[in-house]
Amino acid sequence: MKRTALFLSLFLILFPLFSAERFALKAKRVVTVSGAPMEGGVLLINKGRIERVLSYQDPLPEGYPLVEFKEGTVYPGLINLYSSLGITGVGWGSVWNDSKEVGNLNPQLSTFSAFYPWSNLLPIVRSFGTLTVLVAPNGGAVSGRASLMKTSGWNPDEMVLERDAALIVQLIDKRPAREKETMAPAPSKRTKEVREFLQASRVYSLRACAGEKQAYSPLYEATRFLWEKKRPVIFAANTVEEIREAIKISQEFAIPGVLLGAYEGEKLLPEIRLSGLPVILSSLYEGNHKWEEGYDMVYRLPGLLEKSEIPFAFSFYSSANAFDFPVQAGRAVAYGLSREGAVKALTMTPARIMGLKDRGSIDVGSWADLIVLDGDLLEGTTKVLAVFCEGKRIQGMDYFQREAERASRRESGE
After folding, report:
1. Residue 56 and residue 68: Cα distance in Å, rounded?
2. How does pLDDT run across 21-78, given as a tens digit for each residue?
3. Which domains can be identified in the chain, with CATH numbers?
4. Which residues pair with 166 in a beta bridge?
5. Quick one: pLDDT at residue 22?
């Protein structure tokens, strides 16, 4: 009994040390994204969230251990809204690829069930500042359900923010270019299939909610979250016709829609703005489809979307190259996008597109998903000094960091 009492006494005395969840993060500059940047700022973090935002002149309250970066700039963690991270590897063989399945209608497929949390690519992407990803499939007309995941955690259950965050639909006509040119424009067979599927899915959901008896369908059961939780459909659409079809389908079925790609979006800026659909841009590494469109077509679209006040976010699907994610935004700045708009499209806008009100910006009450840099986020030479996921500093090194450390010691490889 005495030993038990002694142990309990020591536990109660030492418990505050083990559960210290409060600290103050001090940096030379704080980019809140939701407001003006602060020259000299202190973030009080408590239980993973931002409790207060102070200036250098404000007194630091007691009980907040100081973590200081005298030459650092704090940004919100980056959010990649269309990624294969965790479901594909470096190689493109079928063994490494869980991003697509055989068949044209696969709504029952969820990337959460295929997500591999121990991928070597996760710590690499995280160390470059991406802390949230929408892991999405990309095969068939109805590809499946995308999951919103954190890039930090031990297993999928720890990392998931929302299992069924969106349904991915592919409206892109993948016929050969020669065939498209020789055939007269007509409603796509794929678009027709998507419409018929969504109509059947809506009817099935309505009957299920009303308690009516009906034959069980794994396809329609898997999409009830669209109608009951009002989750978005992300439409992959590039041409003028595909973008218009995506807008029509979203309006016909009264479901939140998001355009993915929108390669020819500059031709439909007024229509896209009037529809209210936000845009997720594909990788800016994509080449122009036709030489006469100009080499800068993919680079000028972000600036045009900003001027038209259309919400948009950047994305990078390739998991092997996703660490290069913020560099795309920097390239778009050279073609008309503002620096503030570029940072916003990497952080706050993607968070709001997916309904995340407490991520993507540095505000009181937001999760402390933060990255500390030694310079400007949009510059390719900037280094990440520290990463905080929900207030917890990530200490583990990725492959590149381990190799850099080995090189600094002038050690040969294994």
Report:
1. 12
2. 899 999 999 999 999 999 999 999 999 999 999 998 899 999 999 999 999 999 999 9
3. 22-76+360-414 (2.30.40.10), 78-357 (3.20.20.140)
4. 146
5. 93
Closest CA to 135 of 90, 91, 79, 179: 79
Neighbouring C-beta atoms of residue 108, cutoff 10 Å: 17
pTM: 0.89
* Local confidence band at 106 (pLDDT 50, 70, 90 cut-offs): very high
CA 75 to each of CA 208, 292, 363: distance values in angstroms, whole numbers, following the listed order: 45, 39, 11
pLDDT grade for 327, boundaries at 50, 70 and 90: confident
Q: At what angle do helices 325-333 and 339-346 cross, to 10 degrees?
A: 160
The token duo for 322 is 């996703």
Q: Are 101 and 141 in contact (CB under 8 A)?
A: no
Handedness of CA 210, 214, 219, 222 (dihedral sign): positive
Query: How far is 144 from 111, CA to CA, in rounded Å?
Result: 8
Amino acid at 111: T
Long-range contacts of 303-309 (CB under 8 A, 24+ apart): 303/332, 303/335, 303/336, 303/337, 303/338, 303/341, 304/265, 304/266, 304/269, 304/336, 305/265, 305/269, 305/279, 306/336, 306/337, 306/338, 306/341, 307/336, 308/269, 308/270, 308/272, 308/273, 309/273
